[in-house]
Specification:
Family: Belongs to the DegT/DnrJ/EryC1 family.
Number of helices: 12
Strand order of the largest sheet: 1-9-8-5-4-2-3
Order of helices and strands: HHHEHEHEEHEEEEEHHHEEHHEH
CATH superfamily of the largest domain: Type I PLP-dependent aspartate aminotransferase-like (Major domain)
InterPro entries: DegT/StrS_aminotransferase, PyrdxlP-dep_Trfase, PyrdxlP-dep_Trfase_major, PyrdxlP-dep_Trfase_small
Number of domains: 2
Number of strands: 12
GO molecular function: pyridoxal phosphate binding; transaminase activity
Pfam families: DegT_DnrJ_EryC1
CATH class of the largest domain: Alpha Beta
GO biological process, one term: polysaccharide biosynthetic process
Bound molecules: pyridoxal-5'-phosphate
Length: 381
């Protein structure tokens, strides 16, 4: 006998991201590329890796691309190639993923945190100069959530104090600052192709880009045991390789990146329009002249945890990026920071909430998320 369900079934389930949906849109290309790598045993280096490096360099308008095993390694390799040595200080934002700063320490340097902007979540240029000492060697701006950092001001400060700039583009493939692609400002740019990133592999992968031939060669040597040809060890390096399978997969996905980026921007615009009507929700601020690529669509709310629980009950998956700002995680307890040192990053950690966004998301799914948020905000007016 038919029994009515006790609880009405949600018409919609909205995952935070849906990697399988993306795979299904390009399945034949991906499957053929994987089969080809296996058929030719092109597992390490070789034509697949070279082809991806060339194509990625063209896509981001860089002269050189050096691939490596993941985005974290790319930061470490870049800093070694830039000559970071014991006691050197590197300035990085207080609000980022830990890769940005753990690699400063690995390269031998000292992490110096700088607060982020109250609205854009990127490093606040007005706070950088007070952090500069005679030991400072570089700055790592992070284009967080897909929004470019304020590169004009950062480059001016760097030039004045003779510092290098390493752009962390892990969340910002194809984002633009005043018409210019991110990654083209600093000495080098670091990319992650972690599966959930805007361009994602089916495993770990990363890359560096630069227009400096000497730096490109040093970075390639460091990633490959200190030499670019087998048996050549001019310096001690590491083993950090993009493998053939990931390179072949990334080469299939790369031509779709501009369309996937536009899809993210279109979905973000739909969120923006709908959320503008709701009290208590702060939408992402896009700085003047910036083109945001929405790796994450991050709102703020005073009762963030209650809002997240309400959305979970409506089958909407959300994430907090990141629940504890870097200076306050146990790994940096040695620096003895308090919230007052980085008021913006500290204030954001309890308020930020990343809503679902992925290129295959539908307008109906956005409507569902917005309706669930509206229900929450109206109940609490
Ligand atoms: C993902 C990410 C990285 C590191 O990338 P992996 O490929 O996961 O090692 C570095 N910086 C930022 C800001 C990231 O989001």
């Amino acid at each position: 006998m038919f029994k009515a369900p006790l609880k009405p079934v949600n018409p919609m389930r909205v995952p935070f991201a849906d990697l399988h949906a993306q795979y299904l849109t390009i399945k034949s290309g991906i499957d053929a590329a994987i089969a080809d790598v296996i058929a030719t045993s092109a597992f390490i280096r070789g034509p697949k890796v070279q082809a991806f490096e060339d194509a990625f360099a063209r896509m981001v308008d860089a002269k050189y691309c050096v691939s490596c095993a993941n985005g974290t390694d790319s930061l470490y390799i870049a800093m070694r190639a830039l000559g970071v040595s014991r006691g050197d200080e590197v300035i990085a934002p207080a609000h980022s993923w830990i890769s940005t700063t753990e690699t400063i320490t690995q390269a031998g340097g000292n992490v110096v945190f700088c607060d982020t902007d109250a609205d854009t979540f990127t490093i606040d240029p007005a706070r950088i100069e007070e952090k500069i000492t005679p030991r400072t060697v570089g700055i790592i701006p992070v284009h967080l959530y897909g929004q470019p950092a304020d590169m004009e001001k950062i480059m001016q400060i760097a030039a004045k104090h003779r510092l290098w700039v390493l752009e962390d583009c892990a969340q910002a493939h194809l984002a633009r600052y005043k018409g210019r692609l991110v990654g083209s400002f600093g000495a080098a740019a670091s990319y992650s192709f972690y599966p959930g990133k805007n361009l994602g592999a089916m495993g770990d992968a990363g890359a560096l880009t630069t227009n400096d031939a000497g730096l490109a060669e040093r970075m390639a040597m460091l990633a490959r045991h200190g030499g670019v040809t087998k048996g050549d060890h001019r310096i001690e390096g590491v083993n950090s390789r993009l493998d053939g399978l990931q390179a072949a997969i990334l080469s299939v996905k790369l031509p779709h990146l501009p369309a996937w980026t536009s899809a993210r921007q279109r979905l973000a615009a739909q969120y923006d329009r709908a959320l503008a009507e709701l009290p208590g929700i702060t939408r992402p601020t896009v700085a003047a002249g910036c083109e945001h690529v929405y790796h994450l669509y991050v709102v703020r709310h005073e009762r963030r945890d209650e809002l997240a629980a309400h959305l979970a009950a409506r089958d909407v998956q959300t994430v907090v990026n990141y629940p504890v700002a870097l200076p306050f995680v146990p790994a940096y307890a040695r620096l003895g920071h308090t919230g007052a040192d980085f008021p913006n990053a500290y204030g954001h950690q309890s308020r930020v909430l990343s809503l679902p966004i992925f290129p295959e998301m539908t307008a109906e799914q956005i409507d569902w998320v917005v309706a669930a948020i509206a229900e929450f905000t109206q109940a609490r007016q």
